[in-house]
Each structure stands twice: as C-alpha cells, then as structure tokens.
C-alpha cells in the first residue's frame, strides 16, 4: 500500500497542496468537505473498487466525525537525534443503529517543517519525518476488536483510547535538515507541526477517509560545539581606510575589525577586536557595533522557469531583500581625569590624532536571533557593522563582518532516551482538596501504582493506555469507573499510620450540634475546681502537641488554627 499523505519522492507542488488542505486556514479551520487526492492511479482504482469516489475526505471537515484524534506532546521542543514524546487520543464515536462498524488502519505520526512567506498561499516543506504508531506507541492492540483484513483495516472498539508514544527524530539528513524556528516579519516564518493521522473505512460502503490533528512544535538541528565554537584557523577580518573630514583630505583613519570565529550562540556576547590607526587631526570619540539581519524572500514565478524538469527551478523567482537592525552597542569615549578625583567614568579613552590603538568591545546577541540557510522561499543572514565616529561634523567609517547565529538548544539539547517510553505520557486525574469533614472529594491512587497502570496492571483499574469506555452510555461508563476505582482503592492502599503525638481534629459544628448539646446536658460528677483543672490540662496538652502536628493533606490550601 502507498501512503496517502505527504509521501517522499513526489513533487513539491503535490505536497504543498496537501499540506494546505490538512492545515486549514490561518485559524486551523478546515474547509467544509475538504479532501485529499490519492497518490497514483492504482490508489484511484482501489478507491473505485471499494466504492469510494476519487478523493479521500477528511474526518475533521465533516459535520459529525466518526473518528476524532488528538496529539498531546510532553515537550514542544526536540533536537535531531532525540525523542519526541507524548500521547495520542483516538475517540471512536458510538455508532447509531443505522451505521455500520468503523475500521481503522495505518496510524502514523509525522513531524513536518515548512517555510511560509506573506502573499503566498503555498508552503515549502523542507523537513518531514514519519513513523507508524505500531512502532512507537504502546497499547495499540487494545484499539482493535478484530484482526485486520488483507488491506490492513481492523474493526475499532468504540470509546476513547490513549496511546503513549516516543518517536525518535533521526540525526542524519535522511528526512531533511532541521533549521529551528524563527519569525522575522509578519507572515515570514519557519515552523514545524507534529501531526497524527489514521485511515478510516466504513465496513459497509467501503468509503475511506482520514482522521488527523496537528499541533505546533520545534525541531532544532544537532550541532557539535567542539566543531563550530572553536577559533577559526584564520580570523574573519575586514579593513578599510577613509578620511574623517567632509572635504577631501590626505589624512585617513585605518580601521581593521576581526572576530575569531564565524558561529555564535544567540543570547551570548559577541566580541570584536578593533585596530585603529588615526592619521588625522581629529579624535575618534565613539565605536558602534550594530547587528543587522538581512531577510531575503524568493517568490516563485513559474513563467520564468524555462526547463521541463520534474522539480521547479529555485532561481525562477522574484527576490525581495529587507534589512533590520536587531541589536546595537555604543562605546563612548571615557571622561578624562580631573584634579582631586581618583577615577573617571568609562574605560576607553578614544583614539587621539596620530595614535595607533588596539582594543575590543562586545555586542549582546538577541536570544531569539537565528540564521536560516536558503530554502525555497526564505533566507536569513546576520552581519556585524563596526563604525567609528569623530563627532557630528565628521563622516563615519565602517566595515562589515558576516556571522552565523545558532540556538543554544542545538549544542545543549534536552536529555532524552528511550529507557522509559511511557514516562509522563499517561494522564493522571487531579486530586481534590480535603473537605471540612476530613473526607476526600475524589478517589486517588498511590503514586507507585501509576507505572503499573500504564502497563495495564492492577486489574479493576481502567487502563489509560487502552479504551476508557465500554459500549454503554457515558453516564453509565463514569459510574462503572468510579465503582471500580473504589473497590480497587481498598485493595491496593495500605492503612496509613497515625502520628503518636497529639492530633488536631476538626469538627463540623453543623453536623455535631446534637452531640454537643447532649454532652452539655449531662450532669457533671465533679465541682467547678475539677472542671477548671481539667480544662487547663487539656489546653496545655493541645498546645504541647502543636509542635509535632502532622496534617494528612499537606498540599491543601485551607488554613486551620486551634479548635477548642
């Protein structure tokens, strides 16, 4: 069987059209009745043989979908070579009496990276990685009621299924080179999505559809810091010579700027070494470092493509270049020392006439800066402009150095391994606060039972990696789950030991009114002296016991003082 969505080895135009249909508009809203066309003629003949009519419809675009899917990520950021974790929710709606059972097949998770520019409906996909659920998810066998047929479809169990997954993103460039994310201008961005899709088939009519859902994520390239952060064999250098006077003059200032490597990390200081030879009669008073971002847009123009190749010519386009200053650092000349003062403001004293001086200064790179190599639609470059100035009545002199900016995630990724594929993937019910009567409003499970729950252990407790609902109504399902939880809690929870010291007890005055009135009406067997001594001893014992007070629910936000 061939893939229905975003396959490898097909034209970029075909993938772009499918991606546009799957993602919907700017608000992720699908066009009613949206469809995708099968890949080849064999798929079309198979659809006609099964009774379907050409294009495959999308379940999310239907007024009432039979199957709904969702993908929840444990972390939205991932580096090539690491694992993308989370869980997939598959909801099979209960069929009516007139509807036939539903069949499912070929569940997949895809990570797709694409470029987009304004005034262009198409998106260029440069990264795509896909893995079947059968290889990366657990508990998939509990989704199906019967074995699969020759086409791979199997009847699904109605209800909600939660499948934890751990998907590895290869470190090589087999599925494309990740670039990270950036949003430089309105509509100009590099983005990624994680999408789950499942093929759906009606057992009666044979009509096929696709249930899909996606969420935005981040994919960063893995970069070896010992390679990109070492000093270059020859520093990057730029030099110029120019006069500071507006009128022509033979006296000039020689400026040389250099950086010791090409690649820098966003958020760090970028130091520039400056060498100045001042042959003029003016003093150089300031140095300015400017980080300039250059964004180049490539708008495809098919009529400029003279070739007949299968893929479009990347040079058949109209270019648009934009420059923007994203950071700036100014080094002003320091104040001169004066009589009676032990110091002065600043550390750089400028470059006096006839002086030759070498010094260095830095500029702080913005944490969201990122250089993007040219793709089909977009290219982002950065450069450092080093400017010397002698005042407002003189001309400036400057040089430009190209640099490359990477993200810190690429050299120090989040630790990830596949030793615990279901860790953090299951959903845990929230524990409610303890009520004034000292009773929990919701059933809870001890922390050590969650690992067993994810693996299907502890019979009687609903498994969060399989169907949570049976073939009954939703109200009956919830009642069944509560009854099972209460029975299992008595079996798995051991009695909690009570502290040996004094215990603070909280009573509900509305509920214990009758008991207190009965106690007050009972005759006392001792006199007033005995009563006062007893009250004093009880108060002393309560006060002494507050030092070793232990509450059953330390996370509760209810404040309780001493109750007498």
UniProtKB/TrEMBL annotation:
SUPFAM superfamilies: E set domains (SSF81296). Residues 507-517 have a biased composition (Basic and acidic residues). Residues 249-408 form the Arrestin C-terminal-like domain. GO terms for molecular function: protein-macromolecule adaptor activity; ubiquitin protein ligase binding. Pfam families: Arrestin_C (PF02752). GO terms for biological process: ubiquitin-dependent endocytosis. InterPro entries: Arrestin-like_C, Arrestin_C-like, Arrestin_domain-protein, Ig_E-set. Coiled coil: none annotated. SMART domains: Arrestin_C. Residues 549-564 have a biased composition (Acidic residues). Residues 486-564 are annotated as: Disordered. One of its GO terms (cellular component) is cytosol. This is E set domain-containing protein. It comes from Wolfiporia cocos (strain MD-104) (Brown rot fungus).
